[in-house]
Amino acid sequence: MADEVEGLRFEQRHGKARVRVARVWKDENGRHFFVEWNVSISLLSDCLPAYVRGDNSDIVATDTMKNTVYVKAKECSEQLSVEDFAIGLAKHFTSFYQQVTTAIIKIVEKPWERVCIDGQPHGHGFKLGSEKHTTEVAVKKSGALLVSSGIEGLSLLKTTKSGFEGFIRDKNTILPETRERMLATEVSASWRYPFESLSSIPAKPLYFTERYIDVKKVLIDTFFGPPKEGVYSASVQSTLYHMAKAVLGRFPDISSIQLKMPNLHFLPVNLSSKDNPVIVKFEDDVYLPTDEPHGSIEASLSRIWSKM
Ligand SMILES: O=c1[nH]c(=O)c2[nH]c(=O)[nH]c2[nH]1
Predict the structure, then answer these.
(1) Distance of CA 175 from the midpoint of ligand 1 (Å)
(2) Based on the domain organization, do 217 and 307 belong to the same domain?
(3) Residue 62 bears catalytic tag
(4) Is residue 114 a contact partner of residue 108, using CB atoms and an 8 Å limit?
(5) Which residues carry a binding-site annotation for urate?
């Protein structure tokens, strides 16, 4: 919200961050479904008097926002995607409160996965996985909408089929060129859907959940290549681009994707002493894993017509 106040430009928003909620659903066979969400709400609203005059009469209390998360979770009688929950919550704030013009909801889903015992999916047992499903939704009072989804903390590593050659060499360069190295990263991805209004959201239950699973698979498959031969990576940059391109090529309902792929270095170990010039000689076998410093490589790829 931008306003002019006493000759100055003023922008404000308020909300509640990190509201934690978990929800269980049970099907007719007694099978349980479970999600845990960390919800952050941010409202753009007409409440200038609260800032300039101490008049709170137009304020939606952030405590009320928190309670609303639990009320909406209770109301969801059927299992739903984290995106659909975010959209429903945002819609509530913009339609229920005259003052609220836009609601922005961010949610991080904790990666609870159903356990398998002796090869059988457990009816009510879950263990924590690694990478997280995220979403960010903005809904305006008009029904105009932005939906994006993402992955955080997808750690991927391959022990060969990676190199880095032909880069700029100058007086500060010591890195040798190589066609054989380890490639390790922790992918953060965020992609945008083209739906521009509440009415254009697909009605199919768990549509966004399916897409998340599909996008993750395309990212992983493209990073590694086929199981036997793999695929050569000329750089993190090149692999990132191929991953982004594969997602846009495969899913017409995704309009843009942003990828962040830190280059997590595994340093060759060579040990020597004055008496013993070769204690350990590196032969693509013993590495020193590091996480700092790391290369930071990020890019986004959008269809030309997409509004990023
Ligand atoms: O894939 C890479 N991209 C770089 O930009 C870079 N820079 C570097 O030192 N090593 C690497 N590896």
Answers:
(1) 9
(2) yes
(3) yes
(4) no
(5) 62-63, 164, 181, 236-237, 263
